[in-house]
Write a structure and sequence with these properties.
Layout lengths: L5 H5 L2 H9 L2 H14 L4 H25 L3 H8 L1 H34 L5 H49 L13 H13 L7 H13 L8 H30 L10 H16 L4 H35 L6 H19 L4 H14 L1 H13 L11 H24 L1
Helix pairs in contact: 2-7, 2-9, 2-10, 2-12, 3-10, 4-9, 4-10, 4-15, 4-16, 5-6, 6-7, 6-11, 6-12, 6-13, 6-14, 7-10, 7-11, 7-12, 7-13, 8-14, 8-16, 9-12, 10-11, 11-12, 12-13, 15-16
């Protein structure tokens, strides 16, 4: 019987991508998009997936075709490229980690009780993640994510189906182009982390290298692209589902999402319980918490992994415990932000999401140059169709960034 699931064993980095992506961007941003605009921003959700697709896919494609990460490739393009990545990642990783941790803490407080203090819960969650990564490392993430993504997908589709049959309000699918600085700011933030910041392509390449170390899976380039497509399609489907849930339950309800992690998590769980029924509260709360916990542990692993590799390449030297230095640094920095800047978390998250969008052209261009040039075997360079999609994506990301800056 278990032989029938051999295909599932071969999946890995693609589901880790889904685990990292399906977090704040889906549970927070997508439900807010539905609550505030109805189905009006579905165009943006689908378009940004199409636009970003090639640049995410180039991560595992390059890694498995060359046996090295995108970071190695960035160095080949020039040390300045790698240094730019290092600075950008250093500028955003603490806020991103704080954002996912505080939402996870809010859900934990509602699910487990004990205390409603989000700082205490943030510390507990961070420590648990550190212990799990110390014990299980990549293999734990690989196995854990398969269970989480499958469970989340099934539970979300069930919730949406029941919500659809329970609503009597006629829905409109008229698409909306936001106007004014506030609405445009939300749109940029929505696109910035949907389905994820483009620097996650670097994480993808590092995870693909780790997956290749498992000789039993024969994780080659063809398998890596298939694996990524599975995870990417899952993020798109679930993104649409969360927008739909926000629309069916909260659009025109005059309910405004709270900026507090605790209150927001209560609203989020209410969103589901209205759809599935109050008797499903525990299941819903557990599913939402598991989703955010997977994002928290994935990002806590990925950023230090990337910073370790970058530091090694910049200094031309390998440091034995550098990963644990960066992961400890990230954990301490995250808690410090939550302690001293809790009241400004909304602003910090907005800055991080907007910065993710404004830096997207940088990652798009260097990923395209790397995958299309001499450093990638000719067999695995992109097809003309993928090149055209990449050109369109680069122009779109640059154009949209300029539009945003002009609208400030």
């Amino acid at each position: 019987m278990f032989n029938n699931f051999n295909w599932l064993k071969k999946l890995g980095p693609g589901l880790l991508f889904a685990g990292a992506a399906i977090g704040v961007s889906h549970l927070v941003q997508s439900t807010r998009a539905g609550a505030d605009f109805g189905f009006g921003l579905v165009w943006a959700l689908i378009l940004i997936h199409i636009v970003k697709y090639p640049f995410f896919q180039f991560g595992p494609r390059y890694a498995t075709a060359t046996g090295e990460s995108l970071l190695d490739g960035y160095k080949k393009l020039g040390k300045g490229v790698l240094l730019t990545y290092f600075v950008l990642n250093l500028a955003t990783m603490f806020t991103i980690q704080a954002a996912v941790t505080i939402v996870t803490a809010g859900l934990a407080a509602n699910l487990f009780g004990i205390t409603t203090n989000p700082i205490i819960w943030s510390v507990i969650i961070t420590v648990i993640c550190l212990i799990l990564l110390l014990i299980g490392k990549y293999k734990l993430l690989d196995n854990l994510m398969k269970i989480i993504i499958i469970t989340l997908t099934i539970s979300t589709i069930i919730a949406l189906t029941i919500a659809f049959f329970n609503t009597n309000t006629p829905q409109t699918f008229t698409q909306i182009l936001p106007k004014g600085s506030i609405e445009v700011g939300f749109l940029i933030a929505f696109l910035g982390w949907m389905p994820a910041p483009l620097d996650v392509s670097v994480w993808q390449s590092l995870w693909a290298i780790e997956k290749q170390k498992d000789k039993a899976t024969q994780f080659n380039t063809k398998q890596a692209i298939f694996d990524f497509n599975i995870g990417f399609i899952a993020t798109l489907i679930l993104g649409v589902c969360f927008v739909a849930l926000g629309t069916l339950v909260m659009f025109n309800s005059k309910e405004i999402f709270s900026g507090s992690a605790i209150l927001f998590s209560q609203q989020l769980i209410t969103l589901y319980t209205k759809s599935l029924g109050s008797e499903m509260y525990i299941f819903i709360a557990a599913a939402a918490f598991t989703t955010m916990f997977s994002t928290t542990i994935t990002t806590l692993d990925a950023s230090p992994r990337a910073m370790t590799k970058t530091f090694d390449l910049l200094t031309n030297k390998s440091y034995k415990n550098m990963y644990w230095f960066w992961i400890s640094f990230l954990a301490i920095g995250t808690i410090a932000i939550l302690i001293f800047f809790m009241s400004e978390m909304g602003v910090l998250i907005k800055i991080a999401t907007i910065l993710s969008f404004l830096t997207a052209p940088f990652y798009a261009i260097i990923n395209y140059i790397l995958i299309s040039g001499k450093h990638t075997p000719s067999k695995w360079r992109p097809s003309i169709q993928l090149k055209i999609l990449s050109w369109f994506g680069i122009l779109f990301l640059i154009g949209f960034s300029i539009w945003f800056l002009l609208s400030l």
